[in-house]
Amino acid sequence: MTRTTNEVAPHPWRLVDDLHVTRSGAAQMQTDLDLLDEVRAGSPAALRLYTWAAPALSIGRFQPETDVDADACARHGVEVVRRPTGGAALLHGGDLTYAVAMRVDTRTSVQASYDEIASALVAGLAVVGVKAAVARHDGPPGAVCFAGQQGADLRVGNRKVCGSAQLRRDGVVLQHGSILLRRLSIDETDLIAGSHPRDQLRQSTVTLDELGAPHDPRVVADALIVGFARALGMTYRQPLRTEGTSGTR
Amino acid sequence: MEFPEHLKYTKEHEWVAVDGGRARVGITDYAQDALGDIVYVQLPEVGATVAAMAPCAEVESTKSVSDIYAPVSGTIAEVNAALNDTPEIINQEPYGLGWLFDVDVADTSELDSLLDASAYRALVESE
Description:
The structure holds 2 protein chains of 2 kinds.
Chain A: E1 14-17, H1 25-40, E2 46-50, E3 56-59, H2 70-75, E4 79-82, E5 90-92, E6 95-103, H3 110-127, E7 133-134, E8 154-156, E9 159-169, E10 172-180, H4 198-203, H5 217-232
Parallel strand pairs in A: 1-2, 3-4
Antiparallel strand pairs in A: 2-6, 3-5, 6-10, 7-8, 8-9, 9-10
Helix pairs in contact in A: 3-5
Chain B: E1 8-9, E2 14-19, E3 22-27, H1 29-35, E4 38-42, E5 49-50, E6 55-61, E7 64-69, E8 74-79, H2 89-92, E9 101-105, H3 117-125
Antiparallel strand pairs in B: 1-2, 2-3, 3-9, 4-6, 5-8, 6-7, 8-9
């Protein structure tokens, strides 16, 4: 299964820069689903970039609600939202989230589509000096996204820096994922029943902050915008924004 | 890669085994290979009405959720409940124990629009 999705890449993509937009977690997921539906309806492929106004825990499409410690989430003021995509629980707030919606040949394997988008993410992270690589499956998936690695994810060394998931519908893939920018005062171990020890989770993950790389969302978002264009050989339908890119660390 | 001659196929990579007015449905060897390790299957309800080429089930593999389409219109007669606990048998035996559901076919003429093995093989092997 080596078929790739390159045939769709050269057409101009739509850039949805939502870093300045405040939405609830549920609205963020609906906006990603809307992106998928727009491409299903004939719109060009799209890249959306956003952050989270308040910490939110997203859980996978089929993840049991019993994985979540609802009392702890309420105590910490964390919204719980179900993703339309697969995978396990992920705490948002210290991350930059990307969403891609693009048409894929129905013969394209799941891993090939992850690899193609990974090439763009790797190129974007390279712009801010981070050398990331595609992760490989390291065991059965657990209840916490960042506690394990699969071919959907990116790592720096052996530590996971980006977790991604997909929904495929009518020949269109929605892939979204989180790039760890910085730690919050809480993490998934505070919110998921019976999850990994905090030390273990922290040792198996790394943030751009910890890598000494730029970790301002605006700077990293601009790097991804450049990286996607370079890696996929595409352009955007609207001019790139040029303000707000000076180096915050 | 297997393409059993006795089965019919869809362009969306489902297989269909026809037995009178009932059709057993699964996903092809090609599809399970493309999906990777399947960790969850959401099957339709027995008794549910399904429409030809409309989504009626979902599978998750490598954190990717994919639709499964009903090859023909009809009523779900039976589902493979073993997949609830062991979805990985779809990867191991896509044409056997890894079947998904049986449909009582509403209009058998819809079966005529399905692909035969050689046409399906040509589809997946074409560039």
